[in-house]
Amino acid sequence: MTSGPPMRPLEFTRYAEDEQRRRGREFLSEIRQRRTVRQFSDRPIPRDVVEDCIAAAATAPSGAHKQPWTFVLVTDPAVKSKIREAAEKQEREFYGHRAPERWLKDLEPFATDAHKPFLEIAPALVVVFAQKHGPPETDERHYYVQESVGIAVGFLLAALHHAGFATLTHTPSPMGFLSEVLERPANERAFVLIPVGYPADDAQVPDIKRKSLPEILVVKEP
Fold first, then answer.
1. Nearest residue to 54 via CA among 168, 196, 184
2. Topology of domain 45-198, CATH
3. Is the bond preceding residue 172 a cis peptide, omega within 30 degrees?
4. What is the pLDDT of residues 69-90, one digit of tens each?
């Protein structure tokens, strides 16, 4: 009889149903307050807290446990300036030429344009890279990369909100410039750029509504 891979006992906390309901509702109430912020304060933030949030993101499940992600934390003003310059170049092309009219129409409620000052004003940028495969010198393969990194980003956004930070998911297209500016290897591709900080004192957000639970939930009961 051959032995299997090494295992260890699961550490799991079992809650009573009333406690489960309390925790579920408490988390729902907290996460409902999260909003995408485009107006940031330049007030410094504690780097160690952001690093803890990134560590939390790295606990996400991944295909074959390959953990195909790299998180680059940028606080250097000069690097942030380079990122803004390159991002706005792509955004000018998007808003001026590449985006179809329907897309631009759908963006109107958010009052966005090619100007991205938050890339310099926010005290930190977290750039998440997806690793298509392992380092070039290895034969390591990665599986379900998009799904794995997407889950990790979800963890990261929730953790940053829980820690008291405002965030924005920014995806200028194409994002190849991030690999160049941040000197990332060829096996990595930029997945999302997340400004992190505190909202400006006069920050505003679009007055939008989320879909209700009946609109998004399908239950198959016996």
1. 196
2. NADH Oxidase (3.40.109)
3. no
4. 999 999 999 999 999 999 999 9
